[in-house]
Amino acid sequence: MYKIKNFSLHISHLSNFTEINSKLLKGLDTFIDDESTRKSHEFFGRFENIYIESSKIPELNDVLCAVKEIAANILKISASELKAGLWFNVMGPGDKTTLHQHDDDDELLSAVYYIKVPNNSGNLILGKAPAFTTVTPEEGMFAFFPPNMPHEVTENLSSKSRISLGINIGPLHSED
Predict the structure, then answer these.
(1) What span, in angstroms and rounded, lies between the C-alpha atoms of 165 and 139?
(2) How far is CA 12 from CA 68, 78, 117, in A?
(3) Which CATH code of 3.30.930.10, 3.30.1360.70, 3.20.20.70, 2.60.120.620 fits the domain covering 11-170?
(4) Which position has the higher pLDDT, 95 or 131?
(5) What distance in Å separates the CA atoms of residue 157 and residue 170, rounded to the nearest whole number?
(6) What percent of the chain has pLDDT over 90?
(7) Would you kindly state where each structural domain of the chain is located, as residue ranges?
(8) What single-letter DSSP state applies at residue 33?
(9) Alpha-carbon torsion (86, 60, 114, 9), positive or negative
(10) For residue 175, what pLDDT band results from cuts at 50, 70 and 90?
(11) Burial 9-37 (b: 16+ CB within 10 A, else e)
């Protein structure tokens, strides 16, 4: 359907990230243990995926709108043809994310959006040795990459948690 040729990484930034990130952090703190919050992918005693409904944190919709616009530009299609889903990822000191991909369903792109990034809290590694790219995260930054791109996050060597949003973007089907 949609093909991305010679594409491996696209970096973009959210212009008003300071205010949005502050509200995302407050919402995460408020709803992380709410009974409606779903958690999945438990590794080493940590849930890598924390799903909080956007109705509880409206700023998630701001991120999703930006994601669809950027993805539409990358894919050279209309944002109205796309859907996107996201989840929080909280990496405490010593945490890392092992090598994986996001090509389980109909994903066209994957992305990460960085909310809180202490110094030395882990880098995104795209690809596998010897051909890989290292992305040093920054607050307010999006990193878009193909969903079949193997990726991992190095160990958080800081004394604080790093918080990001994992994102998958796919085609909007008529039944969606």
Answers:
(1) 11
(2) 12, 18, 16
(3) 2.60.120.620
(4) 95
(5) 33
(6) 70
(7) 11-170
(8) T
(9) positive
(10) low
(11) ebebebeebeebbeebbebbeebeeeeeb
Residue with tokens 């998630």: 60
Helix (H) or strand (E) holding 71: helix 59-75
At 136, list the tokens: 């040093």
For residues 116 and 139, the answer to whether their CB atoms sit within 8 Å is yes
Q: Comparing C-alpha atoms, which of 34, 20, 36, 42 is closest to residue 165?
A: 20
Q: How confident is residue 100, by pLDDT bands cut at 50, 70 and 90?
A: confident
Question: How do beta strands 10-13 and 141-145 pair?
Answer: antiparallel
* DSSP-derived 3-state class of residue 70: helix
Mean pLDDT of 68-79: 94
